[in-house]
Amino acid sequence: MDVPLGGDFIRSRIHADLAEGRVTKIITRFPPEPNGFLHIGHAKSICLNFSVAEEFGGRCNLRFDDTNPAKEDQAYIDAIREDVRWLGFEWAGEPVHASDYFETLYEWAEHLVETGHAYVDEQSAEEIRQTRGSLTEPGRPSPWRDRPAAESLDLLRRMRAGAFPPGACVLRARIDMASGNINMRDPVLYRILDHTHPRTGDAWCLYPTYDYAHGQSDAIEGVTHSLCTLEFADHRPLYDWLLERVPASTRPRQYEFARLDMTGTILSKRALTRLVQDSHVAGWDDPRMPTLRGLRRRGVPAAAVRDFVSRLAISKSAGRVEAALLDHCVREALNRSAERRMAVLRPLRVVIENYPESETEWLDAANNPGDPDAGSRKVPFSRELWIERDDFMEDPPRKFFRLAPGREVRLRYAYLLTCLEAIKDEHGEVVELRCRYDPETRGGTPDGRKVKATIHWVSAPHAGRARVRLYGPLFTCDDPAGLEDLNPNSLDVLEDCRLEPGLADLEPGRPVQFERLGYFTADPDGGFNRTVGLRDDWARIKVRAGG
């Protein structure tokens, strides 16, 4: 697989652990919470966890940390599985879930109570927040902190049995209310939730928190290297504290790396949810969204995402990467794989006065000039054509080399064409061009005259029609603060585009380059989505440190 990331501190650590004998087989995991769809930021973690396991001959688990049924749904689980496979990865065995371990996690919770490391607290959530302290003030102990272990154990068992309503009590770790790390100030381990779980139904009303379930699930699975993004660094002391006190047979270690932060977008799950709920986009797979589903619908190939991630630093230094790097990787991938076709997005009719009315020629056109094995196709040429409206100007400036009255251009794969006259409607808008072609110039210019412009075209009688969606940046700036920076012009829908024959029947998801216009993909709902334009500015853009 073309994923391997370059040398980094995580791989150095793994080499050292193997050399020192701390581990004999590398086991990693990708542990999404099934409460939303994956985005481009998750791709970095997916590629890292799966590729590290592959490189060292180990395995990577796909584990759903499904500890909050209030926000989880089977649709998210199915989508995450599909997205990971789309990226080109396969997990070890069947996907696993934190809910698979609910019984063991609960038994370990009882063990913490029995050994004096946890207690049942009857304070409300608000009271717990108020007594948690701040970065400058220590927390205050709960009045229930020193209750006897037997009493806490009895209450915990009654909590599991459904004897209390949500919010009546929680199980907390007994650590240090004066700790400088707020995560260590007697964090909540279990809470009562009145929600049906997508997998366990109503078998449980007592659910572990993410912080409790995560590390213990790692231990149950024998994970050797728990790879997390930097925001979990402050949680590592709790991760280690719990593993030292539960009867687990393995001791995973957590390592943090900088998350992916990219210009021009927002990767906050809460902000992305608002975009969907407030109908700023058409859904989670809207091609403007940074979700993997949105990227796929826009036509971004999985190989381009993997290439993009492979160029990012795996470090502890937070930084941002320019969105142009992703576009560059997309262009590189599509330039190799996408066949070329001609399409006219804003059509202007051309009538070739000296071309026979009833004649049609079938001209050879290369499917991909950079790939001889891609072969060629036949395209029809006739008296009436469509060209891009932008390829004509009635009174052109000095450096405009395309079509104008009296000016000659080359038609791609065809002939030289000279504009004779522009026909206008009653509003003064040009609606048709009258032209003349040179029949001696098919495939070249025998007299050696030079033409400065080549334009694309579509034969009018043979053209198909389609809707084409031109997607631009969803936000107006590189560092959007929120929805106030939304770009009102992020989508331009063209309703009456003209296509080379056969394009309208292209299967959904298949990429194609519209010559001179960009890369596009057929949409499942019909029409085409622009994936990325042809111009690549990456050579002039420098990636910021980290990423």
Write down the overall mean pLDDT: 94
- Proportion of residues in extended strands: 15-25%
- Counting DSSP H or I runs of 4 or more residues, the number of helices is 12
**Structural class of the helix and strand makeup?**
alpha/beta
Shape category: elongated
Task: Find the count of extended strands (DSSP E, 2+ residues).
Answer: 25
Q: Major β-sheet, in short?
A: 7 strands, mixed
Physical arrangement of strands within the biggest beta sheet: 10-23-24-25-21-22-11
Radius of gyration: 31 Å
Oligomer: single chain
Helix percentage: 10-25%
| Spans where pLDDT lies below 50 across 5 or more residues | 1-6, 542-547
Q: What is the CA–CA distance across the termini?
A: 22 Å
Describe the 3D structure:
The protein has twelve helices and 25 strands. With 547 residues, the protein is α/β, with parallel strands linked by helices. The strands form six sheets. It has a seven-stranded mixed β-sheet, covered by helices on one side. The chain has a seven-stranded mixed β-sheet with strand order 19-16-17-18-12-15-20, with no helix packed on it. α11 crosses α12.
List keywords for this structure.
547 residues, alpha/beta, 7-stranded mixed β-sheet, 25 strands, elongated, disordered C terminus
Summarize this entry quickly.
The chain is 24% helix and 22% strand.
How is the topology of this model organized?
Layout: H1 9-20, E1 27-30, H2 40-55, E2 59-64, H3 74-86, E3 96-97, H4 102-114, E4 118-121, H5 125-130, H6 149-160, E5 170-173, E6 188-192, E7 206-208, H7 210-221, E8 225-229, H8 236-245, E9 253-257, H9 269-277, H10 292-298, H11 302-310, H12 323-337, E10 339-341, E11 343-344, E12 347-352, E13 361-366, E14 376-381, E15 384-388, E16 408-411, E17 416-424, E18 430-438, E19 454-455, E20 458-459, E21 464-471, E22 491-499, E23 511-514, E24 518-522, E25 528-532
Parallel strand pairs: 1-2, 2-3, 8-9, 10-23, 12-18, 16-19, 21-25
Antiparallel strand pairs: 4-5, 5-6, 6-7, 11-22, 12-15, 13-14, 15-20, 16-17, 17-18, 21-22, 23-24, 24-25
Helix pairs in contact: 2-11, 7-8, 11-12
